[in-house]
UniProtKB/TrEMBL annotation:
Predominant subcellular localization, coarse grouping: membrane
Domain-level remarks: The DHHC domain is required for palmitoyltransferase activity.
Localization annotation: Membrane
Keywords assigned by UniProt, alphabetized: Acyltransferase, Membrane, Transferase, Transmembrane, Transmembrane helix
Family statement: Belongs to the DHHC palmitoyltransferase family.
Protein name per UniProt: Palmitoyltransferase
Protein encoded by which gene: ZDHHC22
Transmembrane segments: 12-31, 43-67, 138-160, 197-223
GO terms of biological process kind: protein localization to plasma membrane; protein targeting to membrane
PANTHER family in the record: PALMITOYLTRANSFERASE ZDHHC16
Residue span(s) of domain Palmitoyltransferase DHHC: 104-230
Enzyme class, broadest EC rank: transferase
Superkingdom of the organism of origin: Eukaryota
Length: 275
């Protein structure tokens, strides 16, 4: 439990550090290096377009990250008078204290110390449980983090390609980049800043692929109308049309909500004002 509590603090700190490093590298290294290209026009230059794209992706990733934490799942035990102590409420709701009493998909998270409805999983990177209220923002967070990592990977490769005069046309060039760079770094032929960017390239690739995979997995579960908790517990869910399942998570305008993330932020603000 102590390890999990520690992970609950370390993982968000790790995410914020990586975000800060990515932001600094993009703003102070990658984007200024694109301005040095004399063949480009000042207006609509790749540097400006890339800067605008990166700011859009990172603002959406961080905005949804904050919304996941803000819209954490409701505490079910609050409104129920089942005796003192959250764990007792949890046992009742989970069905372990009184078989047959369980509410569908409720789960007591010992890290968050609360019972949540339509529980999916506990996310260590946000330090919160993912449930019915923040699932939409969580998927958006995964999607935009993955896109921001991909964007940083491409910008980083362009920077390394220009500064080391190398080409990534051959796919093997990326695979052999790390061992070559390590040997060059220890022989003094590579700057520490360039070595750092090369290490970040692999980190962005790893985080980007992990987030994209996670996002696809969550979307597949939503289309089936399932949560990860239900799959783990082997719970049978009522079959419904996939559009209905999407509407439950992304709202009535689910397609627009997926394409225009700001629409979700607006509807979240309105929902909070109504409360
Ligand atoms: Zn939790």
């Amino acid at each position: 439990m102590l390890v999990l509590r520690l992970l609950n603090v370390v993982a968000p700190a790790y995410f914020l550090c990586i975000s800060l490093v990515t932001f600094v590298l993009q703003i102070f290294l990658f984007i200024p290096s694109m301005f040095r290209d004399p063949s480009t026009t000042p207006l609509f230059s790749p540097a400006l377009l890339h800067g605008a794209l990166f700011l859009f992706l990172s603002a959406n990733a961080l905005g949804n990250y904050i919304l996941v934490i803000q819209s954490s799942p409701e505490e079910l035990g609050k409104g129920l008078n089942l005796g003192e102590g959250a764990e007792m409420v949890a046992d009742w709701l989970d069905g372990s204290r009184s078989p047959g009493s369980a509410l569908p998909s409720t789960h007591y998270c010992r890290l968050c110390a609360r019972v949540t409805q339509r529980h999916d999983h506990h996310c260590f990177f946000t330090g919160n449980c993912i449930g019915s209220r923040n699932m939409r923002n969580f998927i958006m967070f995964c999607l935009y983090t993955s896109l921001a990592c991909l964007d940083s990977l491409v910008a980083g490769m362009a920077y390394i390609s220009a500064s080391l005069s190398m080409s990534f046309a051959n796919p093997l060039a990326f695979l052999t980049l790390l061992p070559h760079s390590i040997s060059q770094f220890f022989s003094g032929a590579l700057l520490s800043s360039e070595m750092f960017v090369i290490l970040m390239l692999y980190l962005w690739l790893g985080i980007g692929l992990a987030c994209a995979g996670f996002c696809c997995h969550q979307l597949l579960l939503i289309l089936r109308g399932q949560t990860r908790y239900q799959v783990r517990k082997g719970m049978v869910v009522r079959a419904r049309p996939w559009r209905e399942n999407l509407r439950e998570v992304f709202g009535k305008r689910w397609l627009l909500g997926l394409l225009i993330p700001m629409l979700n932020v607006g509807s979240d603000c309105r929902r909070q004002k109504v409360k």
